[in-house]
């Protein structure tokens, strides 16, 4: 298991469920955890769900991806309070997460992954 | 100055106003967002009320921090981390002394700005917090002025949050977070938080 | 009903289900249809599902968004064979679809929407 | 030259080879993609076999078109629209006359290139189709040469498809679509499609 993990945060549970399926297919060895929707499964983001997803992730250093700006604010707060190093990427959500995860699976070094994520920045 | 009891009364009045205006707040959000600001805020303030009733609090800091964590956890929208950061910031400042309400509110504003990076004029809750904090400092906060700041978000073009996706089309509607923040400051006045 | 509709194509059924929920919340009046996964619900894209999503969409002119390149190729083929005008956007999938749908709901003119989608191009 | 029968035999042999190499094709795809190229192709060619058995065909064009639609509909991956476009392109050209196999294959290659925009050296099926079409034109297609082109994709860096996300890490693995395309051309030789 690599010491990097991937954290996915979305407003809707189904989006991150589906994205996790897509990513696991290309990266069976990468630690991927996700938080989608509010505590009661509605549209929004949940600080608690994100915190749980951080704890459950086997990675010590997390690459985090989110859909809309408000999930980023929740992610930020979790990141500030967490012991893990959490890097939040302002990239296209699905495309950025896919790229990072595929590269982690291929054991590409972190600084090289950062470079490949750069052009996917849209936020 | 803030005392434990006054703070709790303030926050409960805020929650009551949010509950009363729930539908209105969501309607405002429907126009330029996703239509959930009222339900978000009502869920958050209801959770806040519950935790504030659950035990006795010794310090204002403790009350504000508990309120902030409840709002952060339960609101579920952008306003969750924003109000959460405001209250957590206020709690930290209240730890330095609960007498200086103006400094406490200033710390709340700082929390919001740090979290959301909004500037004055971006059509967010900051457009109420910013002048309100200033007015408290100068002892001139009033219901009328709060209403003015809230209404002043109507002609603004949103630069932050979901409304910013609409560009020009965000003009002509009041910002829901500005309205809910207005309720927070109104409640302060009504509960005498600002009285010496 | 506007004559524009939004078409979503993804490799995983859950992704477009979730994205549709996110979009309907901000744009209850915009026609949104989606195709996710292969015919048997696996990871991939289905020409037939896309064709059905095009037909079911009440819009006459469709703004189409996709996740990975291979869904674009299927979309292309459907677009060539369809009577509807289908514009495929190489934008960040979720962010592009969200932007376009929110603007359609706000009745922003098409050329203005194109302009706002431009900076979201990542493919 | 292509006849209805020869075309069907060719395609069925291709399907048989794909089925035999299913696991291998998916393993290749696991290294630089999502590991489904074998199951994708097998699903597509099985569907193709079924439709080709369902009725009698009058023209080569009809056979190729039916095969193309089956592959397009059932493969489910990038190779679906690519093989689909190849066969639909070949069908169109066969409508102009089924004698000129070289022109038909050229139209297939055009279909793939139009669909996927891959160039020579991008580490895709194009890296087999391109030299193969050329060799057919010069009557020098052979099993050995096909193997060479397929193997030549190993040191290439992928520029298209899922493997392109891996950049340098795509080097050192054969392209699965090149391998499956190799099977298509091998089947042509074995079924005598290229004999006068
Ligand atoms: N970056 C930001 N800075 C300050 N306030 C913001 C920011 N983004 C959004 N807001 C405020 O949040 C309000 C919307 O809250 P809400 O509807 O609960 O969240 P969401 O937009 O996630 O549905 C807006 O009306 C605005 O006042
Ligand atoms: N743009 C393209 N042009 C030509 N061939 C491509 C292109 N993209 C992918 N391919 C081919 O498709 C093959 C992968 O097919 P497959 O695994 O069935 O689809 P997917 O990548 O969607 O899972 C690659 O090995 C490559 O040969
Ligand atoms: Mg909202
Ligand atoms: Mg919301
Ligand atoms: Mg594949
Ligand atoms: Mg696939």
From TrEMBL, chains A, C:
Assigned GO CC terms: membrane
Biological role stated in the UniProt entry: Component of the dihydroxyacetone kinase complex, which is responsible for the phosphoenolpyruvate (PEP)-dependent phosphorylation of dihydroxyacetone. DhaM serves as the phosphoryl donor. Is phosphorylated by phosphoenolpyruvate in an EI- and HPr-dependent reaction, and a phosphorelay system on histidine residues finally leads to phosphoryl transfer to DhaL and dihydroxyacetone.
InterPro entries: DhaM, DhaM_N, PTS_EIIA_man-typ, PTS_EIIA_man-typ_sf
Boundaries of every PTS EIIA type-4 domain copy: 3-123
Enzyme class: transferase
Example GO biological process: phosphoenolpyruvate-dependent sugar phosphotransferase system
Keywords: Kinase, Transferase
Protein name: phosphoenolpyruvate--glycerone phosphotransferase
E.C. number: 2.7.1.121
Reactions that this protein is recorded to catalyse: dihydroxyacetone + phosphoenolpyruvate = dihydroxyacetone phosphate + pyruvate
PROSITE patterns reported for this sequence: PTS_EIIA_TYPE_4
Subunit-level organization: Homodimer. The dihydroxyacetone kinase complex is composed of a homodimer of DhaM, a homodimer of DhaK and the subunit DhaL.
Automatic annotation (TrEMBL), chains B, D:
Gene Ontology terms for molecular function: glycerone kinase activity; phosphoenolpyruvate-glycerone phosphotransferase activity
Record's keyword terms, sorted: Glycerol metabolism, Kinase, Transferase
Stored SMART domains: Dak2
GO CC, alphabetical: cytosol
Top EC class of this enzyme: transferase
Catalysed reaction, written as an equation: dihydroxyacetone + phosphoenolpyruvate = dihydroxyacetone phosphate + pyruvate
Pfam families named in the record: Dak2
Domain of life: Bacteria
Domain DhaL: 5-190
A biological-process GO annotation: glycerol catabolic process
InterPro entries to which the protein is assigned, alphabetical: DhaK_L_YcgS, DhaL_dom, DhaL_dom_sf, Dihydroxyacetone_Kinase
Assembly, per entry: Homodimer. The dihydroxyacetone kinase complex is composed of a homodimer of DhaM, a homodimer of DhaK and the subunit DhaL.
Function: ADP-binding subunit of the dihydroxyacetone kinase, which is responsible for the phosphoenolpyruvate (PEP)-dependent phosphorylation of dihydroxyacetone. DhaL-ADP is converted to DhaL-ATP via a phosphoryl group transfer from DhaM and transmits it to dihydroxyacetone binds to DhaK.
Protein name (database record): phosphoenolpyruvate--glycerone phosphotransferase
Organism from which the protein derives: Sporolactobacillus putidus
Phylogenetic classification of the source organism: Bacteria, Bacillati, Bacillota, Bacilli, Bacillales
